[in-house]
Queue: 4 jobs
Job 1
Amino acid sequence: MIAIQSLSKLYDNDCYGLNDVSLAIDQGEFVFLVGPSGSGKTTLFNVLHGRERPSSGRAQVLAYELTRLLADQLPVLRRDVGMIFQDYKLLPKRTVYENIAFVLQVLHYKRRRIHQLVHQVLDLVGLTNKAHDYPRALSGGEQQRICIARAIVHQPRILLADEPTGNLDPDTAWDIMQLLGKINQRKTTIIVATHDWRIVNKMRRRVVRLMNGSVVSDTIMGHYA
Amino acid sequence: MPSLFFFIREAAIGLRRSGLMTVLSLCTLAVSMLVLGFFLLFTVNVNNLADFFVSRLEIRVFFRDDITRRDKRDFHTVVQGFDTVREVEFVDKAVAWETLKQQYSGTQLTRYIDKNPLPDTMIIRVTDQTKIQAMVSKLETYTTVVDDIVYGGYITERIQLLSKWLRISGWGFNALLLLATLMIIVNTIRLTIMARHNEVEIMQLVGATRWFIRWPFVIEGFVLGVVGSTVSVVMLKFSYDAVAKYIQQQFPFMPLIFNSPILWWIYAGLFIIGTVLGVMGAYISISRTLE
């Protein structure tokens, strides 16, 4: 599903964002990407989401070779790779329903189908009663749930979560991780970049540790000290 | 591909939700088009004024005293032979003298000039003022008939040159103004789009194609263009009519353009230019943002 070989990302200031990274992730896996700030987690996500082009190496995501990705393939890739952001990136002038429905409109779903899917996903994240609220009226945890709902409503095969619990208290963070675990049970591949060692150690999933742009460890049912 | 209705609805939502920026963009577009329209009207009026003066240029041929009526008739036939001649008027020297005496009836003109000093005169008006010089050169060769020719030679050339430069500089200035208007509109709409940068970014992140993102903004640009240029055309028409009427009352000899089809062409042109600039502005702005 994701096959990365000797991938490097060299910036203009001669700093490596990624340095000779090799990694393979199968369908339905749940992977934690850990490491200190500047270790390359966000760069790797940016490459996998087509926001940055790698300098060398190979990165295959589903049917797309990211080093040779054409401009018109990028939107199609992103429909298969959902993204959850630490800062939520919700549209403040649209309601919760509209924020989620927006993705389906982009994908040309019919109105009736949109209505059905949005309610299903709101039910999954437990926010059916907030459908007509605006994001500013929601708590941080609720906004992150909406962000997750938006990322999964069109059932992407891969979900990237960049510090999804970074702004949340421990209880809410744990709720969010439980939710991601539930989504993973539907065979969605999930990669979570995090600093939160408590969650990593509690979940006991595969842990890939990055340091200075390189993979320093990759353990199944790993932990993060 | 979603229906056009979807994009129109998205555009309407966009305009409504960024209300203040929409109003500011509309005002900027309307004022820019108003300034452009004002200078267009100014240019056509200046050109009209120049044409008015040039069209009044005429050739006056003074006949020799010793020629016969038949010589004058033959010369008249020669003059009529020029394809640029619009009108030929013969002024008999006796009639001219009587007219002059009437004009200066309160003076002692006849006390000092007892004999008619005026020659028979032919006044020639032409269709193409630029050919005056060439025509005069040909008429001057008829030395057996012609005593003198007056056509305001130097002044004619100056007025024609002035008219030419007014025309070129007027349209050149309007072209520059059009470019400036486009830049103002592009940057105003760009500000509107930058205010919705998050929206564009999220659209990209969830897999929207470039055209899916562009369409609502282009439709918004179209609406801004239509409304803004309509406002500017209405304001321009009423203010021009009022100002032109006032100038006409104060300076009746000024040949201003009134109720002419050219005015309607300008108003229609401004409407189309405003609409096109709105669409172009939105397209350029959103494309730059997407880059």
Job 2
Amino acid sequence: MFPDKQKAFFATILVSTFLIYTTYIYTSLPAEDKVPLNEVMAGKKIWQQLNCNACHQIYGLGGYIGPDLTNAYSLKGPAYIKAFLQNGTASMPSFKLTNKEKADLLYFLQNIDLSGKADPRTFTINYDGTIEQ
Amino acid sequence: MERLSNRQLTISKLFILLSLILLATGMVWGILGGLQYIIPGFLKGFFSFEKIRPLHVSSVVFWIILSSIGCIGSYIQEHTTKNLYSLLLFRIQFLIFFISILAILISYCFGIFGGREYWEFNPILALPIAIGWILFIINFIKSIGSLKKQPVYVWMWLTGIFFFLFTFLESYLWLFPYFKSNIITDMTIQWKSYGSMVGSWNMLIYGSSIFLMDKISGNKTYSHSRIAYLLYFTGLFNLMFNWGHHIYTLPTHGYVKHISYIVSMTELFILGRIILQWKNTLSSAKKNYHLPAYRFLIVADIWVFLNLLLAITMSVPAINIYTHGTHITVAHAMGTTIGINSFLLLALIVDIFQLNYRNDNTIKKSLSIGFWITNISLFIFWTSMIIAGILKAKWQMNITQIPFSSMMLQLKPIFIVIFVSGTIMSIGFLLIIFSLIKKQILSFKIN
């Protein structure tokens, strides 16, 4: 038998630590960009409304039927992305976006691109099993 | 008590029946999604992949959630030997969930999104889900009464129920500008909530599994033992702190990754130990009596072992750098949700529906055939995904990468194997689901 007092003690310790950890994460992360452009937020909204993440990944997270788009802006360029948005592909429909919507989506992709590199080849593997960029 | 006999249509059984229908439809969407991998453009005009994927994922996620609710609703009454605190609240919860899920799936069909991965629906639809869950919390707490001298499964249910609400609400913090205006913050919080959310529904399922083990063995010593609680607290520790393994490559704080690496993923191992311990105490006579449920419990144990190996491997950042963003991640997700969660839930459902091989040869045959079809095809499905993942990892790490579309073309033979094995697995599941639903509906005496 595990005494009730010990159960309560362990539960309290764990829950308290979790809440402190959660609060620390909420407050320590870079909560806002220096210039959170309205266009970036509008682009993000379009990204969600079209459910782009179902097929594409950002930092390797998302669907796998399409390529990772984290650094597509710098690697492929806005014109290349725009062409895909305009015409679609064999799998991807043409979403018939307006010029403003396409521009906003490009701002969003540019914003992601500036946040870091997702290419696994750019990471260094350490002896202790950790990785760094 | 709500569960009086097999012939009554209880709310718990309604939750389970709805969940089985969602599992069946979820698999159909999965097959269509698999076809789109090998025939690009298939159904593009009506159901392109951005619609199919959420239809598949949401259907199977709600299968897990609703069946977990139904099983807890039934078992809590067996545990307390009383009715739920409020059957009316349970009915209202069912109605809220039914309408919300229907609205969510219909909205996907029309391409109406606005949420994010896994919860792609418009955020407004999250509100009734949260309200329904709060009703569940009220019902659970009032039904249990006190935590004094409670077995470990009650603690697991309580943990799962509270953490599901917490993580569900946390996954909507992106609605606030403070969180959504920076992509790294947004994604860190998103995967913090998702990682723990999976842990929360695991608590619901594993808790019910331990209840069933106790019931089959006729011995409640284990669920009150010190080792059971120590394993539970280790599981809770993992639920709270191991989520960072999803975001090793995200340029977020290093401590998030280091903590996750150290904590690692041991929760599946915990269940494996619990099941093995229980297995040793079973008498062969009791085993035979409960064979359908027993079979699913034991096979889940094997899948725990396989996925544990994969999970530990993937939790090492140096290896995760290769597996991340590949189908190895999908193999792990499929292995755990199908091989562990779904088989455990089927064991619970077989028990709740009071199915017994000795009483019915038709159900015996269907469950037995379905059992073998699902397991063999799942193994092929799972292995093929790992192979596809290894090949994609090789492509990701190659200095001179061929274009993405060419890489996908090279993987096509493996995608065909995944599609065929997935389709056969779905047939196996449909056989089981159809037998369970048919058997239950035929035996209903609606009061």
Job 3
Amino acid sequence: MIYRMITGASIGLMSLILVGCGSGENNGDSSEERKILKITVGAEPEDIDPHVVTGVPEHHIIAALTEGLVAEDPLDLHPVPGVAEKWEVSEDGKVYTFQIRENAKWSNGDLVTASDFTKSYKRILTPALASKYAYMLFVMEGAEAYSTGKLKDFSKVGVKAINNRTLQINLNAPTPYFLSLLNHYTWFPVHIATVEKYDGLTKRGSGWTKPENFVGNGPFILKSWQLGRKLVVEKSSTYWDAKSTKLDEIHFFAIELETTQENAFRAGQLHNIYNLHIDKVATYKKEHADELRIKPHLASYFYRFNVNKKPCDDVRIRKALTMAIDRESIVKNVTKGEQMASTFFTPPGVAGYTARARFKEDIGEAQKLLAEAGYPNGKGFPSLELLYNTTEGHRIIAEAIQQMWKKNLNINITLQNQEWKVYLDRQREMDYQISRAGWTGDYPDPNTFLDMWTSWSQQNQTGWADPKYDTLIRKAAITKDPNARLEVFQEAEEILMDQLPIIPIYIYTRVYALHPAVKNWHANVLDHHPWKHIDLDLSLLKK
Amino acid sequence: MLKFILRRILETVPVLLCVAAMTFFMCRLAPGGPFDDDKQVTAEVREQLNKQFNLDKPLYAQFYQYLINLPNLQSFKYPSRTVGDIISQKFPVSAKLGFLAMCIALSIGIMFGVIASLRPNSYIDYIPSSLAMIGICLPTFVMGPLLILVFSLDTLQLESFFIKFGLIDFKNFLNDIGLTWIAALIDFPYPSIGWGGFDGDLFFSSDMILPSLTLGLFYAAYISRLTRGGMLDILTQDYIRTAKAKGASAPRILVIHALRGGLLPVISFMGPAVAGLIAGSFVIETIFNIPGLGQDFVKSAFNRDYTLVLGVVMFYATLIVILNLIVDILQVALNPKLKFQS
């Protein structure tokens, strides 16, 4: 009797709650024929203002909403006409003249004009906006001076609207990768009138990126953005090439956790797994080979030496440590994602460049160098600490290397993991001996990997500086002949691999899964996927 | 009573100020800042950024600014949102998840606890008590993925069972007659991520079931043990024997006399628990990808999102203070031995 009462009461309570929750909305999806791509690009986008953001998820979303002067070919990413229907390059390779197409429109119907670009570039270079990526435009004449406040007059910067449809850009030097660079979102235009309307041009995070205000010129327009849930874009009818756009909508889900991505993918709620957890790779190879994708990525995994601190100030020790690592074993047994063991820094095959400079993995030689430096068989070797940011993946690699150095050189190092921001802070303050790092190229050219080791680069963070290296990078920037230019990079990388302020470990791969119904998705080193080409085969989607 | 409440509210002001000061200064002491990133920025850019976000002002001035204007301040990580935006968008989600979980926790927990207390050390005690023990021992980050495996990825092939017993047809029927919220209950297999359906606008949807259950069962386990303890204590009291002697019926004794006192431990537990439940659970929200406040609670600290950290902490602190006050009032109402004292 009592039990019955209690259960009765709880059921009553539950149903009361449920009645309270009831609503008449229809659960069913009536628009089955619409092509809706459900995809995750990892974390929540910080913003979608191309002049403010810095991240990869933001790149994928902005690429759907905005288009630059040129676009990318979906297969190999070579520049194809975008907002500009054609362009001319001057004899000396320093002046580009773009012809903007007549029917390029913003999502509010305005025409895209040359002055949209000049004003956009002025905005990103304005010191008060403090764009973190403004340096991407520094190949343009006067851009760096304007951005650092040394030049006040923007008309002296090398970008000019000759008329509504003609834009001229003057570069500091012939820059063979310039057209590829234009596909970085920092070079995308923004609708200045809209940006101005909400708190002005130099205020970051003004309301202009809200769905109700946003104006873009890309193949898709912003439909909604629910924080922490998803950002939805839908096909734009004002886009000049709208007939080529195949999808009706793309839903960018913000899902950081790999296992959550996988659960959603398996449950049919997502069409991709952005990062597949390494523990799952073997299973996917066996059971879902049609979904698994493992592709080389334009990114290098390496350790930094602090060359100002003992014992890594001695190049012999740096060499010994670098040589005494078995990289093949790391990629085979530890990272397991078909990464490429690297005895060089720049990922091979970037714009025709494959590093010639390679060091040898040679334990005998390493032991000899260590003895020469004064520590035969590791005797009396000072304490050495390896810093990495707290992540399981980095820990296991660090442990493997710790073991290899112990076994091959008989030295003991300690591992220190730090939370991300602390790790970055210590790296910036040079408060480390060896520190883990990774670098993803901004554009497909060796320059993005090699200019970071110049003495003036913010990204160097090793204390290493070599005047000869600096000279070579400066020389490469003004060399017009493409082959001669690559040769200069070869020389520079030889110096880098001889001095070894870093320990290259492997070249990243992207390990992800994609639903077979997603079509025209081509793997490439930048992991760019021009959205207007992507299609969805509805017949392959399970109900 | 009014005096008691007023006094308590006044007392909270210094508490909240202390919390704000500690959070603010601890955040600032931590190494690294909101603008540290993979790619380091130049000193000029850093300086401009500090200026834009007022980090160049003295600390006390910033603290004052934060205190008087917190909800309208920009988040560092998500500059297009203010702290108020983020909390007002995400809190309702966390609150609903917490409310659903609390309903599950209370109904299952109290029911199990009462049943277990009726005949201590018999099988009707052992079964619910051991289930509760299992519930306590299974953390949500184990329970959640387990529920997803069974009810979302359908590893046990339950769908065929659903089809066999006509539950799918029944669901479609319910949808047709407009009872979509009951239909959602049997909309098997349940989604593994999301909240409020595909567009996130449904008041009740099948994706709310698994997260609420995961969170609810965990609390249900605690509540059932607390209820059992409280009830065992009360059921041996003299006044219960008196009530029996006077001939009161068993249900009347249980509900009117015993439950009132037996639930006191649960009430004290519920104060902070409810605050925790509705402020969001980081684990549940991460596993089920629910856009709630719990994720910001953790991530904003990692991101050194100074404004958002303070916003979320202050919001949570205020919630706890209010709920504790409610609990105190409830306890006096339920326990005649207590009086409002100042």
Job 4
Amino acid sequence: MGSETFCGSIKEELNKAYSGFFKENWPTWLAGILIAFMALMIFLWSSPWGIAAGYRNLGDWFFFLTGASCIKPVAPLLHPVVIVNLGLFLGALASALISNQFKIRRAPAMEYLKGLAGGIFMGAGAALAGGCNVGGFYSAIGVFSIGGFAMMIGLGIGAYLGLKYLLWEMEHLPQKAVFQQPESQKDKFDWSIIQPYLGGLILLLIVAGFYIYSFLDKTELGGLLFFGLLIGLIMHRSRFCFVRAFRCPLMTGESEMVWVVAMSLMIYGFGSAVIKWNYLQPDTMGVYHPFWIGSLTGGVIFGIGMLLAGGCASSTLWRLGEGHTKLAVTFIAFAITNSLVLSLLKKSGLIDKLGTGIFLPDIVSWYIAVPFFVLILIGWVFIALWNEKSEKFVIF
Amino acid sequence: MTTDIENIKADEILDTRGLTCPMPLLKTKKILKVMNAGAVLEIIGSDPGSKKDLPEFGNKQGNQFLGMLDDPAGYTRFFIKRG
């Protein structure tokens, strides 16, 4: 029976909202819509959403502090992409704490090696493709950069190769499970009681962070921190993983993540067409992905890495917020490799041979670019749906 | 319902604790392939992602997901009946 007093009613509704927000998993399709909306907000607020450049800034700092590079990078807390990533990580951490899902999670030794290799592959792949699964694929397609479609094909090939390796590993290098025996609960403080409060505190600190940035005349950075926080919350609550869109059709035939990502991309693309066609932002903004050699080969290498690591650039961040120590290794390896490989590509001049950014409407006009974009995504969904029934591409 | 799940006797047990997505799912699929129809597989896992993946996968290919049970020790037990 519901409470009839005002305070009782408010408390009841807050409890319901808390339970709906932080106890139940959010539907993936809802997350797809929300992520497209957040990506458009970031695009309007600053520039198209990316992640790898934030990893790279930390890698650049590693080389600068170890004396390997003499170029001082931008301070992380002033780097727009680092700020979005920080918000994403903290949003996921807050979400994990509030829902009592945060735990330092160990993995078998072999998994750490895979996390390392996965980070190296993803770092190198993102350097070649001019972005990761977000900047090089999701945002690239969303802002009509042809390189995004090439990376999409590359990610599919990479996912196939990565899955082949995982199947081989399962047969030849079986791993023993690792179980962390909980310590005796006697005389031990129960962290689960204060976890939700710590999560709430992080949320409040980020809101405070926005005001601090704004006070320092860096409102753009404050906004990015806030958008990152929302993306982290959405991704953690829905367990949104781009890897599944490429892996699951080959592994179980499941097509859900394909249509969710395709739908999300359509919303993003339509929004971005409105923004660009009306010159609310420069129409070639975010179009720099090296089509086709860089995007395709980078996609293949990145795809292998995301299968090995069990997470892409975005899911590495939110899973890190949930306490997965394997992904801490991936994060560090990604950051350092991305910085190193991009620097080598630039120094060797190879970067100029990987291709150039091509804006689809520049070639075929907006009138053809938009239907082309829609047809490609619908085609992807139909193939995935057919595969779910026929298991034509399921390799296991 | 909880009592029912607690009383399930599994024919095979797969321990995936410490492993993360997609390994618990891959191992589950592999072991289900060689199990007899009607046999029950218990998967023990600690990856929060398995709580989403295994119930969805468990009801595919004629199999039946029987339920899951959180153990106070910090892991989850999942039960799938081979179809």
